[in-house]
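Worked problem 6 (solution included).
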Amino acid sequence: MSQLRWLVCVSLLIGIPAHAEMSISSNATHDVDCAGGVCAATAKSANLNTGDLTQMLASGDITVKTGSAATDIVVHDGFSWASTSRLTLDAMRTIEFRKLVTVAGTGAVTLAYNDGGKNGDLLFSGKGKLDFSDVKSALTVNGTDYTLVRGITNLANAIAANPSGAYALAADYNAKNDGVYAHAPIRTHFDGIFEGLGHTIRNLAISSSDDSVGFFWATQATIRDFRLKAASITAQNSSGVGVLAAGGIDVVRNVSVDGAIKVSGVTMPFVGGLIGGEGENPLFTNCSTKVSINSTSSVPAAGGLIGISAGGLIVRSRASGDIVSSSGDKAVTGGLLGQGLQTAQGLPQIQESYATSNVTVFASSKPKTYAGGLVGIGAGTISNSYATGSITGGNKDNLGGLVGGSENTAISHAYAVGAVSDSSYAGGVGGRIKSPQFDRVYWDTDTSGRTSACGRDRTCNGAAGLTDAQLKSGLPDGFDPKIWAQDPNINNGYPYLRNNPPQ
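Solution. The predicted structure is:
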């Protein structure tokens, strides 16, 4: 493994740059002052030994702080304690769990991040999780008290009793023995907070003819630090379908899903690997999908991550999984986002994101179908993003390596390499384009099979075609090396995003 690739795996995949940190690991304690139940870093690089920490927790509450020297707290090695003691982690910026921490008794946990700092987060990377053996234990995050839940039924009942509450998943859950749900497991409209604590729900299966189909029926909640794996969603005659939620969302952060969606029937649903659609200015940060979507109905909007979004911001997110849609004459399909809608805050914005989804739409009789490697239609701005999947459609479809169609869309520092099938409205970058605003936008003339950036041989100023060899020989002109990197062993040699590397 090259040195660059090693650095990517160790440093970049955790989602944050390196900072001065108070580490918790099996290494010897150093540069830490412990007194009166408080352990604070006294240097930019400090470490608290896990054995020392658990010994102190056996006899009382302990607070671990970054102090005035460090900024982040990072749990490098796992530990557990069985007493009733409370562990408090108090960081100026970020708290990150890289290994399992278990509250084996009835102890409590308080997490405080961005305490005196900014741009920090609560992260669970690699094998990082926070387990609670007893759901009666106490959890507080940044001043909010959470109710611990175990399993889907427990969560559904808790939300039904208080739809605006704050809930946290106490442990991983395997839904295999639940059988196939005939409705969304969480059927109450949820507008609270769901904190996954790095946990995973596996083998969720839903087969439903309800109007909305997904793990959550509909929500304006904040959902974070959570995984859905090996999910299977089958929807008939439904209008909103998504693995995580059918529709409506507020904030989704550090959430990943994988599985498959099959849609059939005569209605025209919004389908997304993560969210079906209709959120009002939602925020998606560090979200990922690996979801195959297959529709035999007429789908007006389908996307690898989101089917349709009213405004909003998508940051450092990604989508993979093939999308096959019998699209109909007015449908839109995108590898990341199907369709964006205008709000008072504008159209959706996409930053530092990518899609590898292969998109296939059935040929339509009129040039009103849009398919793009990243977006079907309706993005306001796209910056520092790319698409690698192929786009296949009929000879009257609007097909583009990045976007199927756009009007006044600003695209900067982006590229596409996917093959784009023949069409009167096909281009290496975009299909049907109106008033484009392109800056440092590129497409691969070899792999795309397209000699023009935009459909119908329209000139798209600010877009340039590069051969495959040129695109792999170095960062394209204008690409910031602080944002982009390149290595022949990563991303098939194409440029990749430092803070959102290939998964």
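Discussion: The chain has a mean pLDDT of 92.
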